[in-house]
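Blinded run. Sample ID left blank on purpose so nobody reads anything into the name before looking at the predicted structure. Input follows.
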Amino acid sequence: MKNIPNLNFQPWIGSKYEITGLSLFGESHYVGPNFRCGKGSDSDSQNFTRDIVGQDYLDDNSLKSPFYRNIGYLFNEKDPYQIWHSVAFANLIQHGLLNATSQPRPEDIATVAPAFKSLLDGLKPKKVIVFSMRMWYKWIPEDNARHVHPLERNGKKANVWQYEYSGGNCLAIGVRHPSRMYGYSSPQWWPLVETFLSL
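Blinded prediction complete.
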């Protein structure tokens, strides 16, 4: 997997990503108190995302986290592992948070916009799904972007935006954080996501 400049956490890139061009972005990693975050060789963070998806979830067939599990069920109710081979994934906050109850500080939020731009330039996606409504509406930059149109399916709503990046552009939407797609409700979002992917 190639490394993208200016990121503390390098993205997971599935083996079939070039076929789909679909990038999924979440908010943040929870790393504990002794975690070293940075771009240097002494950092714990560079391969953190890749290890979580590649080793913890795909190699071990362990989807303990509702975040990753519900994304998997969103795309395939029978095989929640399948989608991870076909997407790129990154969390946009470039500092690790202590735990799931931690809220990002202003300096954490400030890393979202540059990471988003770096990931678009590096991954060159066709489509982007942001899995956090607050990040989508509050923290994702709107420069180099234009609103395309609203979508509504199965009672779920999203606004489609087109983002420009170096050498191309992509369509993007924001949806609910997967940890809040309780139980097996994540497939309820599938009609909206399917419509977006067909654009």
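Unblinding after everyone has recorded impressions. DSSP finds seven helices and seven strands in the chain.
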